[in-house]
Every structure is written in C-alpha cells, then in structure tokens.
Amino acid sequence: MSYSGPMSRNRLLGMKNYLGKPSFTSSVGWKNSMGGNILIENALPVSPNVVADQDAYCVMVGEVSDYKLFTSPVGNYNPSYNVLHDAKFQLTLQRPRDADFGPDWSVAINNLQACQQIVATGNDCRNLIVPEGSEQSIRLSAPVMQSRAVPIPADGTLDEDTGTWPIPKTHQEAFDDIKRTHQVLPLMVYDMSGKYVLPEEVTSKISGALVEVHFRIKHYFINKTQSFNSFTGSIEQIAVLRQAIPKNPSPYRSRNKTGPYRPSSTPSRAELKRAADTFLPAPPDDMITKSAALPVASSPAASLFDTAGSSSSSIQHAAISIVDPAGSSSSSIQQGPNANTATTSGHGTASPSSSSSTLSDMPLPTGEGEEMTGEEEEPENSQAPAEGGSPPKKRKLRR
Where is this region: Disordered (predicted)? Predict the structure, then answer.
C-alpha cells in the first residue's frame, strides 16, 4: 500500500482526537484517577445519574527518532539500573519532514501545552514535551510487562504472548523469574499494509518512519525536593504511514580500495539553475505583455502578393486613352485606389475594370450599334501606308 499524505491527513482531520486540529482542546478534559489525573473525552451524561467517562486516545503524526529508541523485546531494561518488570518501551516523536503533516506539528504542540496548563500546578511541566534545540519533541512510552491478577503456578500454561516472547539469551534468566507473576504487553505496531509487526522487528520498522501514534495522557504532581508536574504519554497503537527515508551510503566506503574518492567539481542541476536565474532573470510581466501585442510577421508568400499588388496598382492608377475606330472621340479610363468606374467622352461607353486587369485584358469601347470584334484597327494618327500598298494590319485582341 502506497503512502498518500493528503488522504491520510483528511482521514485524521475527521477524528475529534487528532492533535493537529485547532479544536482539539474543546473535546477533552481531565479527571482524577489513582492519585493523578487522566485526560478524558468531554461527553454529555447518558442519564441524570450516570456520566460516561471515556479516556481520550490522542492521535499524533511524527517521525520516530533513533535517539533513545527502546523498542526491543526488553525495552529500556538494563540490569545495572532497573529490573525487567519495570522496563518500558520508549520512543521520541519529531516534527515530520512531510508537506502534509509538517504544518500540523506546531498545532499539536500548542494543543498539548494548553491541556497541561489546565491541570498543572505551576509552570514546571516535564517528560511529555521535550525541548531539543529550537524544536520540541514528544516522548512516549509503554510498559513491557504488567502484574498478573493471579500468578500462574509452576505447572500452569503461560499466555501466548509471554510464552513465545523473543527474549534475548542474555536476559533469559531474569525473564524466567518473573514470567509467572507478570505478563508481557507487546507493542501494537502495524506496517503500511496493516499487518502486525513482530516484536523483534519493531525497531527496524519504525526507526525514522512517519508514524501515526495513539496514546493516552496521565498527569502526576511530584511534590518532593522540587515540585513539578509529570505528564506521561502511554502508547496504545503505532501505525506506519511511510517507511524511513533511506540514507545515501558514504562514497568513501564504496571505492573498494581502488583509489581515493575525489568529490566531483561539476555543479549540480540545481546549482546551474540558480546561476542561470541570477544572470538571466525572468522578463517582467509588462515586457511579456508588450511582446504578445506585436504584429505577426508576414510570410514570404504574402510578400510576393504585396509586390504584385503594388505593380497592379501602378497600372490601375495610369490613365488609358483609347480612340474608337470612327475617330470621332476618345475615351479616357482613369482608375484609382477607391474608384472602380470608367469615364467616357463622346458617344463611347466604357466598362468598369477589375483590380487585377492588365492593359491587354482590358475591354475596348464600342460605338453605338457596333459589335465587339476580335480585331482592332490601327489608330488614325499612325503612319499611313504607301499608295497602292497593302492595307494596314489588324491586331488581335486577347480575351
């Protein structure tokens, strides 16, 4: 099962006990319990005489630090300092390096601090919120074992968890001494697929991983040599949301003694991009707007048509004088850029010409009652042929 930050966060935002919700403190309160206080859910009375008290199971998302991580089958047991039946599982949650749950971390810390201030005596609150430099972490724990209500006799059968507990051989004797008066409480850890994680694999599965932890909060006021408020977060369940980000191996240990490792001087892609952005900044928005408003350049074909149009215009602007065969009058056709009419003097008529006409394609004027022929006589002012010579040649017109 793959990890989806938005889906996981949306699911948790629907839970009233998710510490990443700003409204978390409005749904919880404190109740006296066994010499201390325990955080409970605020609920309306079921009946006038019965009040439902439900422990508040807080939910928080963070990364498990490998610092002071004691989640092996013996927890933080050390024969030099404590006894096995007092050992605890312990882990520290840090701000997650996650785009979805990272912003919720500060909200969760503020909610926990607000809950502490409600019940604390004074301002000295310890053990739950642990400062680490400029950041704040959450320390959670759970007992490895608890006392049995009735001890199991020597010939009795142990419960499954205690009877199959993978205790290290170095601590086997200490475990055998108490296994009939105490029972094991395994950490309930589940991987990304929702499968239960075996006790001997818990540390490797959760170290550095993004986890969803469910826990209860208890408060005790310690009034000894120095008075302070002790808050403990008791782990109920751990669900792995995303496995730990793998670390890159050291390049100095991967040379296999073939020679020294020398870091490359070639800049990375990110460095090249930053350098390019420095010397070639993005153009301002107004420049982009102006460039978008510039006219599009014409194509070579359009240029050819423009050249032809100019030549045609020069012909159209010229005045063409044509003399009819009778020689009685001359017709003048003038064309301009906005004119498509013909002017005729005398009894001749002229037809409007096309803008793409040439001199040879232009129709000739005809007199009244005359028909257009395919031949044209020479004008009167041309040189007359010698007497007795051949008649003047006629020029054919192209249609």
Answer: 246-271, 326-399
Q: Is residue 382 part of a domain?
A: no
Compute the distance between CA of residue 320 and CA of residue 71 in angstroms, rounded to an integer. 109
- Average pLDDT, rounded, for the chain: 79
pLDDT in tens, 64-97: 999 999 999 999 999 998 999 999 999 999 999 9
- Structural domain includes residue 364: no
- Of the three residues 184, 212, 232, the one that is the final residue of a domain is 184
- Asked, for residue 151, whether it belongs to a domain, the answer is yes
Number of structural domains, the chain?
Answer: 2
pLDDT of 323: 43
**What's the predicted TM-score (pTM) here?**
0.64
Q: How far is CA 31 from the centre of its chain?
A: 43
Query: Is 28:42 a contact under the CB 8 Å cutoff?
Result: yes
Q: What is the CATH number of the domain that holds 121?
A: 2.40.50
pLDDT at 171: 95
- Dig out the tokens for 230 from the structure: 């002790």
Domain that holds residue 89: 5-144+185-246
30 and 162 co-located in one domain: no
